[in-house]
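Figure 3 (text version): structure tokens given as input.
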């Protein structure tokens, strides 16, 4: 089946000429929205794994996490090069000297590590931390910062208990782009009380800000999260598979064609997902359905970018 969007896998293959995989790291971070400095409950969708799909734990050293998972990916997926991916919780939430130690260890763990990806909150970066990240470009060819944007709407961020605002994101992305650091944003489809128009407004802003990459998550209620309670109380209903596919295509149509789509799928670890279960049971079918829907419409990513209709 043809792909009607600009996929990250293809982008990495073009960049490196071989199969490249991200290898997740849990470096033992927490988050200002969990440790009390901004909030204690965390975002309503975030479970105790910090919104990651990790199988590692912080008790294992960064080097061992990487070596173990590089072996698995090399055997299972025939990957040849790797990106060390600081995924769990907020991976810039520490003093610069500590961050440097962790990032140094990651890029030195294996000679086939060609990149560093760091996932964080916009309110947890500043010029010094971003300059540290940028400094690794002299040691590996690829350094990317990933921001949990989720939505551009402050009223939704409030409902999510996100404890940050869209202005925080704008400030962070301006600093990031000034340093010409590779970057991507995570967005969530199916957020409580968001209309299609709200979601399209987020897509239009991403296009306006010339964001390089987007990771599209479908909202999933994980065990022991406030969102799971909302689901059980029926105050939040997940989107159906068909609604999600249609919304994903609408969203992608409005992004510029060159924007790289890092991933399309559910958040969290499938073992702890409560609803909607199709997100994990039909992971591959959903991607096929997105491409089939584009084929049926005769459209593709970018066909509505800048048209705001
Ligand atoms: S989703 Fe990210 S910002 Fe929100 S509580 Fe979890 S780790 Fe913190």
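Below: residues designed for each position.
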């Amino acid at each position: 089946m043809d792909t009607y969007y600009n996929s990250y896998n293809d982008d990495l293959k073009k960049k490196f000429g071989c199969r490249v995989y991200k290898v997740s790291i849990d470096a033992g971070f927490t988050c200002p929205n969990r440790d009390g400095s901004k909030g204690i409950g965390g975002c309503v969708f975030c479970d105790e794994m910090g919104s990651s799909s990790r199988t590692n734990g912080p008790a294992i050293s960064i080097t061992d996490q990487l070596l173990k998972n590089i072996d698995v990916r090399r055997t299972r997926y025939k990957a040849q090069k790797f990106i060390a991916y600081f995924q769990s919780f907020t991976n810039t939430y520490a003093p610069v000297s500590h961050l440097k130690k962790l990032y140094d260890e990651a890029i030195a763990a294996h000679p086939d590590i060609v990149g560093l990806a760091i996932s964080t909150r916009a309110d947890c970066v500043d010029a010094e931390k971003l300059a540290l990240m940028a400094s690794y470009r002299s040691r590996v060819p690829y350094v990317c910062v990933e921001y949990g944007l989720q939505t551009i709407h402050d009223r939704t961020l409030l409902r999510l208990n996100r404890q940050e605002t869209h202005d925080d994101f704008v400030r962070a992305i301006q600093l990031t782009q000034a340093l010409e650091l590779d970057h991507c944003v995570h967005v969530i489809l199916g957020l409580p009380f968001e209309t299609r128009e709200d979601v399209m407004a987020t897509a239009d802003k991403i296009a306006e800000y010339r964001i390089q990459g987007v990771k599209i998550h479908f909202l999933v209620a994980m065990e022991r999260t406030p969102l799971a309670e909302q689901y059980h109380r029926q105050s939040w209903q997940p989107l159906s598979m068909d609604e999600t596919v249609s919304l994903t295509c609408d969203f992608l149509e409005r992004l510029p064609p060159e924007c790289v789509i890092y991933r399309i799928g559910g958040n969290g670890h499938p073992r702890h997902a409560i609803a909607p279960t199709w997100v994990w049971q039909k992971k591959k079918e959903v991607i096929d359905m997105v491409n089939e829907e584009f084929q049926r419409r005769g459209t593709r990513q970018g066909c509505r970018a800048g048209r705001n209709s």
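Residues 62-77 form the longest helix (16 residues).
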